[in-house]
C-alpha cells in the first residue's frame, strides 16, 4: 500500500490519513459539521458523529482490522450477495466488505461537506467467487447528515443479478429502550423462523434476538432512542427491502469480534435488495443504492 500516494489524493481541508494497522489505512474527517472515519478496507464508514451529538454509528471495540475480515460495526457493504451464499465455501454477504478498495478522490463540495469516493473492480479474488466484470463506486458524503451511495456499474457483457445491503449499525442508548417506526403494515420474512412471512402491526420493540427482512418497502425508518433523547432517521433510495437485526446475547457471544454486551448499544437498519427482489443490471447500466443517516 503506497501511503504517500494515498495522501496525495487528499484534496480537502479537515482530513487526515493514518494507518490503524500496518497497511490498513483510514481517513479521518473532522469538518464544520461532523467527524467520521472511513476505512479503505470495504469502503467502510466506521464512525459518524455530528458535532454536539453522540455518535450515530456503533463499532465494536473488538472489531478486527485485517484484510479479508469485515469490520464489525459502522456500515459494511454487502455485495454482490446479501446473506449466506448457497455455496457455503463463499463468504456471507459477498466479498466487497473483505477487500481493500482504491481511493479515487477526497474533496470538499460546494456545501463544504467532505466527499470521499472509492472504487472496486473485479480482480483475481472476486472472479473466483463471482465470475463477472464490474465496477463499484462508493461516494461517502460527510456533512450534517451521512450519505453513502453505492453505484454498481455493469461493465460485463451479460446481465448481472445482485443482492446487496448497506448494513448500518446504528448506535443507541439501550436496545430495550428503543422503538423502531416505519414498518407498519409491511410484510417481513422472519429469518429466525425459516423465513415465514408476517405482517407488521405497529412499531418494533426488542426483547430477544431479531432478524427480519421487511419486503417491498422504500420507507424511512425512525429509531426512537429514549436514553439519548433523540430520533435517528435511516432513509434510502434504490432499495426495496430493509433488514432489521439485533443478535442479542447468545448470538453475539458466538462472534469473536463483538464486544461483550455490545448488542445492547446497536441496532442494524439496512437499506437492502434481497433475494426476493434481486436487482438485474443490463450491460453498460448502473444501479444506485443509497442510505442517508441523520438525527430526525
Ligand atoms: C444481517 C443478517 O444482515 O447480518 C443476519 O440478517 C446476520 O442474519 C448479520 O447474522 C451479521 O452478519 P455477519 O456476516 O456480518 O456476521
Give structural notes.
The protein is mainly beta. The chain is globular. It contains three helices and 22 strands. The protein has helices spanning 3-7, 124-129, 248-253, and strands at 10-11, 15-21, 24-30, 34-39, 44-50, 77-78, 102-108, 114-121, 134-142, 146-154, 160-162, 164-171, 178-181, 187-190, 196-199, 210-214, 221-225, 230-237, 241-246, 266-273, 279-281, 286-295. The protein has a nine-stranded mixed beta sheet with strand order 1-7-8-9-10-22-18-17-13, with no helix packed on it. 6-O-phosphono-beta-D-glucopyranose binds next to β19. Residues 70, 92-93, 167, 191, 211, 243, 245, 270 line the site of 6-O-phosphono-beta-D-glucopyranose (BG6).
Any key phrases for this structure?
mainly beta; 45% strand; binds 6-O-phosphono-beta-D-glucopyranose
Number of DSSP E strands: 22
Distance between the termini: 39 Å
SSE topology string: HEEEEEEEEHEEEEEEEEEEEHEEE
Uncertain runs are: none
Major β-sheet, in short? 9 strands, mixed
Which strand order does the major sheet show?
1-7-8-9-10-22-18-17-13
Instruction: List the total number of helices.
Output: 3
Q: How much helical structure, as a percent, in the residues?
A: under 10%
Secondary-structure-based class equals: mainly beta
What is the overall shape? globular
Q: What hetero molecules are in the model?
A: 6-O-phosphono-beta-D-glucopyranose
Provide mean pLDDT, rounded: 97
Radius of gyration computed on alpha carbons: 18 Å
Q: What percentage of the residues does DSSP assign to strands (E)?
A: 35-45%
Amino acid at each position: 500500500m503506497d501511503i504517500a500516494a494515498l495522501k496525495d489524493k487528499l484534496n480537502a481541508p479537515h482530513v487526515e490519513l493514518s494507518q490503524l494497522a500496518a497497511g490498513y489505512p483510514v481517513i479521518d474527517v473532522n469538518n464544520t459539521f461532523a467527524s467520521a472515519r472511513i476505512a479503505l478496507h470495504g469502503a467502510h464508514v466506521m464512525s459518524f458523529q455530528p458535532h454536539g451529538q453522540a455518535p450515530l454509528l456503533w463499532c465494536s471495540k473488538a472489531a478486527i482490522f485485517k484484510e479479508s475480515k469485515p469490520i464489525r460495526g459502522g456500515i459494511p457493504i454487502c455485495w454482490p450477495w446479501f446473506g449466506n451464499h448457497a455455496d457455503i465455501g463463499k463468504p456471507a454477504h459477498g466479498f466487497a466488505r473483505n477487500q481493500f478498495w482504491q481511493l479515487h478522490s477526497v474533496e470538499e463540495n460546494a456545501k463544504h461537506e467532505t466527499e470521499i469516493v472509492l472504487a472496486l473492480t473485479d480482480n483475481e479474488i472476486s472472479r473466483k467467487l463471482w465470475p463477472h466484470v464490474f465496477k463499484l463506486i462508493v461516494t461517502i458524503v460527510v456533512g450534517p447528515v451521512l450519505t453513502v451511495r453505492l453505484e454498481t456499474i455493469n461493465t460485463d457483457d451479460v446481465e448481472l443479478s445482485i443482492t446487496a445491503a448497506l448494513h448500518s449499525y446504528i448506535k443507541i442508548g439501550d436496545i430495550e429502550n428503543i422503538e423502531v417506526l416505519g414498518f407498519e403494515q409491511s410484510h417481513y420474512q422472519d429469518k429466525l423462523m425459516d423465513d415465514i412471512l408476517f405482517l407488521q402491526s405497529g412499531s418494533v420493540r426488542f426483547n430477544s434476538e431479531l432478524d427480519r427482512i421487511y419486503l417491498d418497502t422504500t420507507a424511512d425508518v425512525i429509531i426512537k432512542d429514549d436514553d439519548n433523547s433523540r430520533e435517528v432517521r435511516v432513509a434510502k433510495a434504490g432499495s426495496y427491502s430493509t433488514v432489521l437485526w439485533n443478535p442479542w446475547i447468545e448470538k453475539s457471544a458466538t462472534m469473536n469480534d463483538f464486544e461483550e454486551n455490545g448488542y445492547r448499544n446497536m441496532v442494524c437498519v439496512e437499506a437492502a435488495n434481497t433475494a426476493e427482489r434481486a436487482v438485474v443490471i443490463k450491460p453498460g447500466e448502473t444501479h444506485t443504492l443509497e442510505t442517508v443517516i441523520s438525527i430526525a
